[in-house]
Structure formats: structure tokens, C-alpha cells
Specification:
Blueprint: H1 2-12, H2 30-38, H3 43-49, H4 55-69, H5 74-82, H6 87-90
Length: 91
Amino acid sequence: YFGEVIAELLYWLGPDKLLFGSDYGIWTPRWLVEKLWAYQIPEDIAAERGVQLTDEIKQKILGLNAARLYDIDVEAKKAALAKSPLRIAAE
């Protein structure tokens, strides 16, 4: 079912208008992020809709689109984190 939904969203909205979200207000949604990162749209659905869920698209959905929406310079943030004691969290 998820394959159908994500394929429709990619087809009608495109990869630049999708944002990841969860209802995990207390615990980390890491397992959800990992599941999305590992997910591939089934071949028959991808062929029918003419869409793919590439790593580049997943990066957009998981954060780059939100960064663009909020005018966050991702490369500057990465550089700042690389110099910070928190750099492990960025990796």
C-alpha cells in the first residue's frame, strides 16, 4: 500500500514538495527513517507511474526539502557541525 501512495505523491506532486513527518513526539523516529531509507517502490508500481524513489529523492523528503522551505543552508550547518563536539550526531 505504501508503494502506491508514495508513487502517486511523486507522480502528482513531485519530489520537491514532499516532507517526512511522524507522530513520534516523545521517542526518536529513527526506525521510521531507516525504513524509508531502505524502501524501494515495487518495480511494477514504479513502471506504471513512471517514478523512482532514489537516494536523492529520499534525502529531499527526509530533510532537504524542509531545509529549503525554512531557508536553512545545509552545507553551512554541516561545516559548523564538523567543527563542533556534536559532530558525531551529524554523521
